[in-house]
Amino acid sequence: GNSVTQMEGPVTLSEEAFLTINCTYTATGYPSLFWYVQYPGEGLQLLLKATKADDKGSNKGFEATYRKETTSFHLEKGSVQVSDSAVYFCALRVANNNDMRFGAGTRLTVKP
Amino acid sequence: EAGVTQSPTHLIKTRGQQATLRCSPISGHTSVYWYQQALGLGLQFLLWYDEGEERNRGNFPPRFSGRQFPNYSSELNVNALELEDSALYLCASTLFAPLHFGNGTRLTVT
Fold first, then answer.
1. Which of A3, A34, A100, A106 to mutate to test the interface with B (most CBs of B within 10 A)?
2. What is the DSSP pairing of strand B74-78 with strand B19-24?
3. For A44-100, what is each residue's pLDDT tens digit?
4. Is the pLDDT assigned to residue B96 strictly greater than 90?
5. Taking chain B, what is the end-to-end CA distance rounded to the nearest angstrom?
6. A33, closest residue in chain B (CA to CA)
């Protein structure tokens, strides 16, 4: 079936450290891939997306590349800030419909 | 454009009671999703409605039910509340992906 597996947390980093959160997927066809972020007390917000192989999504210094050969969509940021502390969710949309699957979420804490 | 709105923001119920949660999607969106988020982390898929019909249902007991109205707003009902139903319930809407989320209803069962 269609599913998303993401790196378990929590992840704790110092400010300006490099961030990687791993995400791999299983899907039939060619899904669209997403990263969502949830700040404390809020709902999820779309962070970035990629709709086809080799696409790179980017936003707010975060980026992720759709790798079909490794079925991965890892989230990276070169220098994290305290304000990046949040829970990050990887997600996929099954091709040609609105069936969405989410990973378990990874909590990131950035310390000054 | 107005975002996804959920009401109430907080809801406190006692065990055995019923809870009704409401969601208004973004104008033009026809699909509504409901998720349960316990312990501030993982999203558990509850229900997906599109064009007034239930398209998919997560692994929850039948006391979790809902509906989508002709104006695409949606309601989630939880009957015979149990303590473990305490969670943040998130609604999301879309026409085509991505999903747009509301800020949730915090349900507390005492």
1. A100
2. antiparallel
3. 999 999 999 999 999 999 999 999 999 999 999 999 999 999 999 999 988 666 778
4. no
5. 37
6. B98
What is the dihedral sign for C-alpha B75, A45, A48, A106?
Answer: negative
List pLDDT tens digits, range A27-41.
Answer: 888 899 999 999 988
CA distances in angstroms from B102 to A14, A44, B10, B77, B97, listed in the order given: 30, 8, 13, 17, 15
Q: Is A41 left (phi over 0), alpha (psi -120 to 50) or beta?
A: left
Averaged pLDDT, B50-68: 94
Other beta carbons within 10 Å of B100 = 20
- What residue type is A44 in one-letter code? L
**Look-up of token digits 């699957």:** A101
From residue A58, give the alpha-carbon distance in Å to each of A30, A35, B44, B101.
20, 10, 27, 20
B62 touches chain A (CB under 8 A): no
Is A32 part of the contact surface with chain B (CB cutoff 8 Å)? yes
Among B42, B101, B102, the residue with its CB nearest the CB of A105 is B42
Residue with tokens 């299983």: A26
Mean pLDDT of the residues in chain B: 94
